[in-house]
Amino acid sequence: MTGRIIDISPIISSRLAVWPGDIPFSRTVNLSIAEGANIDLSSLTTTVHLGAHTDAPSHYSASGVSIEQRDLSLYVGDVQVMGVDVARGVSIRLTDLNAPISAPRVLFRTGSYPDPNHFNEDFCSLSPSLVEWLAGEGVRLVGIDTPSVDPCSSKDLPCHAMIAAHDMAILEGVVLDGVPDGVYTLIALPLRIEGADASPVRAVLLEK
Predict the structure, then answer these.
(1) What pTM value is reported for the model?
(2) Per residue in 110-128, pLDDT tens?
(3) Catalytic: 59?
């Protein structure tokens, strides 16, 4: 490996914002060397949709598989980072793309969710027509630097449904500030959590 490792995961702490009504992150220290124990030992309580995370099909489809059943090759390999110049709250359309698709995974940089510790509802999302077009281009994973590929107010989740129809993978909540457009190697493996509807990931890009 010769390229730089670029971490695109937000820091996980009790300050990290989660979807309104979901379970925030907390860490309980059960044993502490500083307090006389022989080891440090802690436990976690939180949502599985935490920070940089991937949804399992079971999150948005009654017939979808849970996260431990997903093909890991979806989450490793060539990825194209693409910035889009759109207003806050807009769903990205094909006409907003500024370059041809050149990798089987695409991450969109919108800049519309600038602080992972503060939840703003007017983040950008994807349009179902764009997802369908990406699937036709052979894209296997689509990601975005916001909490969801669908708008915050959406209840029927049309982009999630389109992703399910094409058996694509989702990567949400990544941090792409300062990452130039281009093709990288993505590593964003989900944890093998039995029955889970999502998993946090340590998402990184490797420069080529």
Answers:
(1) 0.96
(2) 999 999 999 999 999 999 9
(3) yes
